[in-house]
């Protein structure tokens, strides 16, 4: 590939991007697509439906970019929560560090690479791309100190920025904790592995235990019921409800729904069925003796103060560590009820099984990846494997196989992986949705780094140049050298990968093709003029964080070896910054958040990328026989690892435990303001196992009006909660689940910002 | 080596052992050696000095064996604490498991090995030892299922026993915690990294913080002073004291010493110097404004209840995890004051440095070990390295080098290692003596396993049979095969190692040669008739636990490969059981204990040994081409690892954290009995930074009388505390430090049990 080909490719991709972005700017002005592009807004405000039609609705505009750019950090925090902010900080970090890296590498390293060998240079557009890589520098060159210097500058810059970001985010997390005054989770703990006493129910055992040992701070508790058995009851109830509804067409039914707690929960089936006296009396039916048998050994226990809950969750309770296991509770909307019923004694073995399964999955996924990659090199394959010779005879088949099939297979693989990892994380026994998503995120990162970065490099190396057999990899000493040889030669591939996968994925993210097609399909093919409210989706951190981190890894590892990748990467990150801000502001809702727990993941992955960059550079300096550069790189690696350890000591504990003094001060303030009573009353009803979560449950107090309109839509509660489960699992093919029109509410007063402008 | 040679060697060693044991039984009856063999008793009781002389004092007897055997577990617990009991349980576990292993292997595996190949057998005494190893079984033998069965039985038996021991010891630990009502450490936490506030002293900052956040439970605190600066003050004071003492010869000085706390602390220099008014008023002089500058950012904080202290030590206090670091406090006699002053921000880097240094030390110690080992094979070395040819010419030199030098070098190395590891652990920043000793113990175990087991096997393999170069070891897949080939052939060496190092080390432990010689030297050469009280020593867990575990490792790995080792090992463990019981009962004192924290170390090492045994067996079955046995071994390894994980979940948390409910119940009981006030008064004076620890401080309440006699000996306090430091570091060459006669007290009423019997 030469420079002009690369530029052509970049041009084509730029045009695609600009086109898609323009299309988006038009689409978002169409009132009929409001449900696709303003899920977040829909969930928040009552908007007017039909604006006036005007020509300006068809003219592309850059207004959304401006809006995304102008949104302040506070606004983003309000809408997307701390996690969104952390994700955007990761993007900003990447922009900053790669700006520095681009400057250094393009003006210092690139010329050195280009003039690294005495050779006849063609005109720049005709020049092959590998002339710009470190592969072009001759062995023993005295100019390798410049690469080493660039390595130092990039590493130091990255570490400094990481430090400030980590410090900043730690502060934000602390402030977030201190500001979340009305969070019921602060007062609540999840008690698992309650021991079974013959004569008592679990509930009695909990009462006895806590009123014995935590008499002064224990408030009350709430048992968790076996999901399966109660769910069956719920389904029966739901059927009854439907029959009832369709038979009598009583429209005022919704207004009778009982509300459960202040978490914005809506009707339970039981309250809807209040006409039948034997199942009536709302929650009290759960306390019946028949349900007692369906209690699982898990309970939510509420305390009078935050500090008491914190302390109870951190101490080892019983001399038998397999009983009375106490964890801090997730938020009501974050809690993952079905995993709460998993017996605690199985959790450890599940966890081991999942870790083993994940490792096997990640490693053996290498086989299809390598196979797919090797298809690109069909001509070389033909020499090695005679089986492919027949295929090679037919030209059109060859084109199909080399040009089209690999990327399709690759894309399919990439869409399969996050749901599978999500399934693994579910099996692992996470008790919160955010925890499950974070765990998935980590697994996907491992997967991508191994199967996208290493597998491609090694396949390239094996097929293209060095005929390395997989068996050679057994020896760990070979790996730096192998990487050092392979990375510069695969840099071209990574460049096009950034251009296509990176840029195009952002366009896809923006235009949301799948919901868009579904919307159009329903509207124009099925001629269903009802507005479709898709389930609102939470931000897919488990696919987006790994993607951004993977591009970061590519950037770091290629920076001094093949600096040409950096400008494209920088463009990617700037676009990502705008697009993700826009999406957070408009599309995704924040039902739950982890409180910035993604940052340690980002930090650790970035440190891994840095060290990998340095190890590869070490290998390159070794191959190029530059002992000075080699010698200077070793302390850099040690310093980077020490820096990481320092950050782990200095910041990470805040992400593992909640600082006690903050809780004490919050308690004191509540006491001082006399809010304590009120809060305690609220928390006792905050957690409802058998209720549909409202669409914007976090913001109950501010947005009571809009919530009432959106909540009471008559969606059967457990259908909605099933959607929540599905949503997370099918996240990469986002918005695949749709509610049947009849069950969907009609927000009739949409007032969208763009429509207002007009 | 053939069987008769082995039996001869065993016979010689038996005779040596019997001789030494008899000698010991005579020596221990000599009143002049009381200080050597009854350090523990000396520290406890007032004994009469001079018994009657009789012929029975010169007749060997087995009475001590009977006494050691008969001592009950309660007695051992009272004298040696939980750690001693745990150590003895480890020995008992070894006896049990190797009894089973011996039975299985001698009656099932040994005959199969012996008749494994069709060959002409000589008479048993002339048979070579390798005929009894698995090396003698022919490839593809159908009888390898028996080895696999033996492997299963030994593994299952070991796991079962380990499980019961772990459960038992967990119970004992819990009971020990619940029984230790008057431990001041339960009420105390160590606060490190107190932030420096410009206008306040550290002490004021602590007061403010705890009376702000822990107002209801905070009792008081005690600052830790910079050891260096105060020590200088102390030394000056001591000089003054000496001058004062020798000038006036005031013998009644000792009776005036002020006592500090109930921890059995004795005089501070300041109280001795109470004649000089400007330094007088005991502890109050520490609070002077000049000393305020010598405060380091560490304090001991006392709480009103155990639960409050526990909770404070487990929570993360401040949003900055590098300030207000709270750990649970060690016992007053266990605390390691000088490490408390190490700035907390340096601890993590010290820890990393020590880990790196330890790894380097362990790995590079391989070089002298391999060199030493290779000297044994001088004839083979001569072929490989021409340098040795000249030496080989002179016969006597060769004998010296092959027969004598290696073991001497080896012994010297082995005596150097524990003090170096202790030094490492000190630098690591352990705040308790028991923690430091445990950390040393772990390091020594790693060292022994690597440098004694692996290094010897690999050296043997390299020189003797397979010409493996060190570079081949880079590939981890080779290691099981290599071990499988090398272990049977090194079994002979290990057998003699057990006979010599194992049996002889027990004799040494019993007869305590170094203190004995010192005693005799003082008594008969220097003609110093004064009795010598050596510093009493705590049990050297950091050398003895690793030794027992190493022999366990040898037993497991050799059991099915070379079962002849097992009887010798069993004898070793039985002797160890008797000898260590005797030593715990008579020689060592228990100044501090870790509360059974050695058991997880024992457990993990045993699991490691088991897995290693299985992996080696896997390699052997692979080499012997027995696919059935190979296939059956794989699930065994997985099950063993799962079992370990289960134990880690089920028992280990109790060894990391203290169960909260126990603390709450203890608090409640104290409250109920009205002891709380009294205890709170005591704890405030329990910790004295500048005092000599009494010899048997734990048993203060029971043994007040004897303590008074032993404590007030006028030893300058910091000289004694220096001795304590030295004692731990120089432990393998035990009792090297002696007090000058003039400073040593005279316990004049010794009543030893044997003397009483007469």
From TrEMBL, chains A, B:
UniProt xrefs under InterPro entries: Csc1-like, CSC1/OSCA1-like_7TM, CSC1/OSCA1-like_cyt, CSC1/OSCA1-like_N
Subcellular location: Membrane
CSC1/OSCA1-like cytosolic domain residues: 186-339
Domain CSC1/OSCA1-like N-terminal transmembrane stretches: 5-165
A single GO BP: monoatomic ion transmembrane transport
Domain CSC1/OSCA1-like 7TM region: 350-621
Transmembrane parts of this sequence: 6-27, 86-110, 143-164, 352-376, 404-424, 444-463, 548-580, 601-623, 629-647
Membrane topology note: Multi-pass membrane protein
Keywords on record: Calcium, Ion channel, Ion transport, Membrane, Transmembrane, Transmembrane helix, Transport
Keyword Calcium among record annotations: yes
GO-annotated cellular components: membrane
UniProt similarity note: Belongs to the CSC1 (TC 1.A.17) family.
Protein name as annotated: CSC1-like protein RXW8
Organism: Penstemon smallii
């Amino acid at each position: 590939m030469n420079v002009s080909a690369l530029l052509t490719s970049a041009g084509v991709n730029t045009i695609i991007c600009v086109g898609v972005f323009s299309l988006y700017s038009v689409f978002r002005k169409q009132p009929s697509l409001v449900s696709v592009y303003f899920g977040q807004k829909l969930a928040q405000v009552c908007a007017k439906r039909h604006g006036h039609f005007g020509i300006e609705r068809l003219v592309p505009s850059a207004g959304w970019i401006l809006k995304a750019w102008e949104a302040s950090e506070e606004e983003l925090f309000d809408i997307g929560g701390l996690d969104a902010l952390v994700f955007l900080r990761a993007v900003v970090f990447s922009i900053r560090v790669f700006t520095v890296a681009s400057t250094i590498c393009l003006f210092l390293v690139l010329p050195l690479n280009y003039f690294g060998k005495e050779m006849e240079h063609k005109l720049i557009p005709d020049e092959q791309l590998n002339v710009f890589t470190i592969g072009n520098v001759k062995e023993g060159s005295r100019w390798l100190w410049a690469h080493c210097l660039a390595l130092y500058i990039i590493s130091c810059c990255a570490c400094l920025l990481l430090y400030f970001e980590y410090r900043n985010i730690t502060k934000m997390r602390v402030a977030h904790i201190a500001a979340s005054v009305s969070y019921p989770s602060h007062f609540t703990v999840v008690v698992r592995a309650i021991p079974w006493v013959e004569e008592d129910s679990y509930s009695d055992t909990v009462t006895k235990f806590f009123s014995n040992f935590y008499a002064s701070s224990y408030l009350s508790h709430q048992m968790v019921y076996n999901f399966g058995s109660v769910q069956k009851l719920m389904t029966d109830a739901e059927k009854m409800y439907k029959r009832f509804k369709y038979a009598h067409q009583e429209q005022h039914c919704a207004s009778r729904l009982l509300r459960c707690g202040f978490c914005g929960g809506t009707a339970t089936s039981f309250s809807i069925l209040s006409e039948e006296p034997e199942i009536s009396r709302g929650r009290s039916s759960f306390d019946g003796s028949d349900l007692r048998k369906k209690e699982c050994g898990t309970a939510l226990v509420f305390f009078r103060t935050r500090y008491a809950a914190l302390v109870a969750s951190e101490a080892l309770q019983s001399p038998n560590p397999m009983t009375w296991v106490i964890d801090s509770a997730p938020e009501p909307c974050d809690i993952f009820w079905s995993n709460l019923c998993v017996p605690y004694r199985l959790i450890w073995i599940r966890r081991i099984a999942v870790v083993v399964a994940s490792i096997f999955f990640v490693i053996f996924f290498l086989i299809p990846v390598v196979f797919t990659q090797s298809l690109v090199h069909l001509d070389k394959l033909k020499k090695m494997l005679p089986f492919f010779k027949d295929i090679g005879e037919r030209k059109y088949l060859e084109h199909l196989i080399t040009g089209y099939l690999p990327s399709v297979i690759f894309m399919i693989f990439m869409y399969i992986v996050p749901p599978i990892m999500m399934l693994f994380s579910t099996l692992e026994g996470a008790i919160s949705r955010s925890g499950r998503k974070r765990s998935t995120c980590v697994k996907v990162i491992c997967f991508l780094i191994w199967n996208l970065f290493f597998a491609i490099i090694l396949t390239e190396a094996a097929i293209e140049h060095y005929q390395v057999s997989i068996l050679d990899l057994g020896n760990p000493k070979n790996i730096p050298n192998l990487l050092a040889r392979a990375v510069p030669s695969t840099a071209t591939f990574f460049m096009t990968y950034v251009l296509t996968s990176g840029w195009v994925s952002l366009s896809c993210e923006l235009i949301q093709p799948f919901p868009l097609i579904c919307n159009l399909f329903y509207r124009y093919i099925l001629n269903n003029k009802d507005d479709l409210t898709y389930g609102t989706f939470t931000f897919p951190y488990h696919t987006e964080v790994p993607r951004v981190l993977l591009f970061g890894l590519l950037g770091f590892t290629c920076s001094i070896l093949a600096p040409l990748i950096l400008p494209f990467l920088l463009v990617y990150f700037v676009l990502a910054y705008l697009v993700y801000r826009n999406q957070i502001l408009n599309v995704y809702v924040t039902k739950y958040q982890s409180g910035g727990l993604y940052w340690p993941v980002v930090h650790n992955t970035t440190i891994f990328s840095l060290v990998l960059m340095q190890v590869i550079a070490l290998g390159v300096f070794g191959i190029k026989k530059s002992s000075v550069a080699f010698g200077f790189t070793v302390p850099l690696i040690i310093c980077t690892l020490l820096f990481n350890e320092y950050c782990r000591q200095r910041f990470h504990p805040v992400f593992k435990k909640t600082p006690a003094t903050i809780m004490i001060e919050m308690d004191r303030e509540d006491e001082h303001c006399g809010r304590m009573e009120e809060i305690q009353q609220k928390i006792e009803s905050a957690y409802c196992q058998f209720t549909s979560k409202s669409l914007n449950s976090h913001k109950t107090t501010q947005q009571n009006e809009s919530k009432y309109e959106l909540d009471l839509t008559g969606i059967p509660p457990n259908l909605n909660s099933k959607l929540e489960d599905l949503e997370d699992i099918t996240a990469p093919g986002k918005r695949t689940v749709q509610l049947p029109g009849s069950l969907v509410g009609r927000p009739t007063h949409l007032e969208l910002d763009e429509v207002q402008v007009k």
